[in-house]
Design a protein that fits this description.
AA-permease/SLC12A_dom, single chain, membrane, 66% helix, amino acid transmembrane transporter activity, Amino acid/polyamine transporter I, transmembrane helix, globular, transmembrane
């Protein structure tokens, strides 16, 4: 319900006012310029820290084949190739991402097929295990303590993991201003997210629970080992005696993880360029090369991958845990920002007599579903590091990584609010017109060019000629 509600009101705002970096700019125009400043920098840090996370994860997966590959070599190779790809024109970045993305689709197809075929007996052991592991040991694992409380803590741990993994709608909102016929294509894209959540996230979680019990000894032994063998799919394949497939799955994981890191370099650098364009970052960051690459923004972004070198002294698994904690908090804060944006937007529409039912996309059960989502997100981000408050469990590194982004967001907001003396936007003063006239004029000139969602998606990521002409794409 939380994700469905979040998707609805995010879609309503993005389709009503499809501008670049929509939820960041919505925050500045409809809530408070300080809120937009905090939103922009939080999103930049969120994306930038995901780069070393992906490099650390890549190291874990590669070590499935051999522990002799130097960690520093993997980090250096990623940093250098990410820099080269993102220094090229936008067109080449888009083309690289397009082909790498096919690996992700193939990977999901393989693991779904593997789950179905093996659970009905199509495996070397001819073991039709079906839903055996849902009964023994069961769906809920105990965590930190025993009994019902332990199972509740296990559920909370899974909830934190889901908060880290389930993302996507905010990225469609970010590129809404670059889409052709945004009120048609972006609307389609948001509707397609329900399928994505249902198939990839829920389906993937169900498959993991089907193929492997949570108390599998190999899984428990490898959780902190820092090797790719900790993947539940790989362990399940090895347990069933399936040869060859674990190596293919691992290879596809390598391409997927590498692709994700490359995408975050691109998004983070463009987000920083957008901050500079809006006056929320130093003006020199607006400089672009002839190919449209925001060179100084890219240079600053490329400093973050060096955090992956922390693995050399602390181990990949430990560093990965730190980065997951930081990134999860940043992602939850993004959604808190979007919730607040919508509440202010809803108040402005009501105060100015704007009939939301006439919008291209109308979110139901408002504003109460947004209020519920906001309260839920706040509870998650506050309780995220609850383990540190249990007797004898406080750990400085754990506490810092769980709450660093929360403290950073608070500091960023009040810094800009005091420095610029900003004020919250009153409902009757909110600019609900903004870029709508220009957007409507543009759409009138392209009404006969509705090319469909998938072709439009390809255009957005940079394979069409218009993206190869070298303009910078700012978030």
């Amino acid at each position: 319900m939380r994700d469905s509600s979040r998707q609805q009101f995010m879609a309503e705002m993005a389709i009503y006012m499809p501008v670049n970096a929509s939820f960041i700019r919505h925050a500045s125009v409809w809530v408070d310029d300080a809120w937009g400043f905090m939103a922009g920098w939080n999103f930049f840090l969120y994306e930038a820290i995901l780069i070393p996370f992906e490099i650390s994860a890549l190291n874990l997966v590669i070590r499935f084949w051999s522990d002799s590959v130097p960690v520093g070599a993997i980090c250096a190779a990623c940093i250098v190739t990410y820099g080269i790809i993102n220094l090229a024109a936008v067109r080449w970045y888009g083309e690289a991402e397009f082909w790498l993305s096919w690996g992700k689709i193939l990977l999901m197809g393989i693991v779904f097929s593997f789950t179905f075929i093996t659970m009905v007996g199509g495996n070397p052991k001819h073991d039709a295990y079906g839903f055996r592991y849902w009964n023994n040991p069961g769906p809920f694992a105990e965590y930190l303590s025993g009994g019902a409380m332990g199972r509740w803590k296990g559920f909370l741990s899974a909830l934190w993991a889901a908060s880290f993994a389930i993302v996507g709608p905010e990225y469609m909102a970010m590129v809404a201003g670059e889409a052709k016929l945004p009120r048609i294509t972006v609307k389609r894209a948001f509707k397609a997210v329900y399928i994505r959540f249902g198939v990839f996230f829920i389906g993937g979680a169900l498959c993991v629970g089907i193929v492997l019990p949570y108390n599998d000894q190999t899984l428990i032994a490898n959780q902190g080992s820092g090797t790719g063998a900790a993947s539940p799919y790989v362990i399940a394949m090895q347990n069933l005696g399936v040869n060859g497939l674990p190596h293919l799955v691992n290879a596809l994981l390598v391409t997927s993880i590498y692709s994700a890191g490359d995408a975050y370099v691109y998004c983070a650098s463009r987000t920083l360029h957008g901050l500079a364009s809006d006056g929320h970052a130093p003006a020199f960051l607006k400089k672009c090369t002839k190919k449209g690459v925001p060179i100084y923004c890219l240079m600053i972004t490329m400093l973050f991958p060096f955090l992956s070198l922390l693995q050399l002294s602390n181990g990949a698994y430990v560093v990965l845990s730190w980065l997951v904690n930081i990134v999860t908090a940043g992602g939850i804060i993004d959604y808190i920002i979007i919730c607040v944006n919508y509440i202010f937007f809803w108040r402005a529409c009501k105060a100015q007599g704007v009939n939301r039912r006439e919008f291209s996309y109308y979110a139901y059960f408002q504003p109460w579903s947004t209020v519920f989502a906001l309260c839920f997100e706040i509870c998650v981000v506050v309780c995220y590091g609850y383990v540190n408050f249990m007797p004898g469990s406080f750990d400085i590194s754990s506490f810092f990584t769980h709450y660093a982004m929360v403290f950073a967001a608070i500091i960023l907001f009040f810094f800009w609010k005091i420095y610029k003396r900003t004020k919250f936007v009153k409902p009757h003063e909110a600019d609900l017109v903004w870029d709508r006239p220009a957007i409507e004029r543009y759409e009138l000139t392209t009404l006969d060019q509705d090319t469909g969602f998938w072709r439009e998606l390809i255009e957005i990521i940079g394979l069409k000629k218009k993206m190869s002409e070298g303009e910078a794409v700012s978030f």
